[in-house]
């Protein structure tokens, strides 16, 4: 879902769980992370996202590097190399 947001040229606001920080670090300024779970934490990050929207075209281009068809081809090549 986060890469779909990037593909649409839109930022996202999320809590910092799992690998989400890795996704945001690859596209600086496009993912806004909440470090707490209080509504004020979300409101603060939403405000930042609205005041500092990402450059939509560049963000969409970044996300296209992670499209399913490209990832599938890479995984398939790795699989073929193993067998």
Order of adjacent strands in the largest pleated sheet? 1-2
Task: Report the mean per-residue pLDDT as an integer.
Answer: 85
The dominant shape is elongated
For the biggest sheet, the summary is: 2 strands, parallel
Gyration radius (Cα, Å) is 15 Å
Q: How would you describe the oligomerization state of the chains in this entry?
A: single chain
Count, helices: 5
Question: Could you tell me how far the N terminus lies from the C terminus, measured between alpha carbons in angstroms?
Answer: 32 Å
Order of helices and strands: HEHEHHH
What amount of the residues lies in strands? 5-15%
Reconstruct the topology from this structure:
Blueprint: H1 2-7, E1 12-15, H2 20-26, E2 31-34, H3 39-51, H4 56-64, H5 68-82
Parallel strand pairs: 1-2
Describe the protein.
It is a single chain. By secondary structure, this protein is mainly α. Helix content is about 60%, strand content about 10%. The protein has helices spanning about 1-5, 20-25, 40-50, 55-65, 70-80, and strands at about 10-15, 30-35. The mean pLDDT is about 85.
Structure in a nutshell:
It is built from five helices and two strands; from the N terminus they run H-E-H-E-H-H-H.
Brief descriptors of the model:
83 residues, two-stranded parallel sheet, mainly alpha, single chain, 2 strands
């Amino acid at each position: 879902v986060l890469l779909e947001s990037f593909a649409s040229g839109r930022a996202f606001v999320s809590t910092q769980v799992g690998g989400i920080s890795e996704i945001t670090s690859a596209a600086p300024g496009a993912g806004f992370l909440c470090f707490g779970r209080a509504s004020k934490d979300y409101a603060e990050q939403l405000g930042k996202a609205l005041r500092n929207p990402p450059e939509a075209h560049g963000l969409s281009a970044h996300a296209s590097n992670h499209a399913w068809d490209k990832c599938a081809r890479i995984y398939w090549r790795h699989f073929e190399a193993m067998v």
